[in-house]
Amino acid sequence: MSFESELKRLEEITLKLKSEETGLEESLKLYEEASALVKKLTATLEDVKRRVEIVSQDGSVEEVDEA
């Protein structure tokens, strides 16, 4: 799945978990799925963060260091 589709799935899960119609067993399964998605999305964002480049004022390209 793409980052966007995983994020959309996480949003869907969040709405289901907020619903009073979702039972305990289903809520637990959704929570586990959401936790896995959050871990994966966070890893993807961290990877992108490492690859972000900044174009400096003189036109050169510099890698952004993690601080």
From TrEMBL:
Keywords: Coiled coil, Cytoplasm, Exonuclease, Hydrolase, Nuclease. GO terms for cellular component: cytosol; exodeoxyribonuclease VII complex. InterPro entries: Exonuc_VII_S (IPR003761), Exonuc_VII_ssu_sf (IPR037004). It is found in: Cytoplasm. SUPFAM superfamilies: XseB-like (SSF116842). It comes from the Bacteria. Its EC number is 3.1.11.6. Residues 31-58 form a coiled coil. GO terms for biological process: DNA catabolic process. The keyword Cell inner membrane does not apply. It catalyses: Exonucleolytic cleavage in either 5'- to 3'- or 3'- to 5'-direction to yield nucleoside 5'-phosphates. It holds the Pfam family Exonuc_VII_S. The keyword Nuclease applies. GO terms for molecular function: exodeoxyribonuclease VII activity. Belongs to the XseB family. Heterooligomer composed of large and small subunits. NCBIfam families: xseB. This is Exodeoxyribonuclease 7 small subunit. It comes from Candidatus Aphodenecus pullistercoris. The lineage of its organism: Bacteria, Pseudomonadati, Spirochaetota, Spirochaetia, Spirochaetales. The gene is xseB.
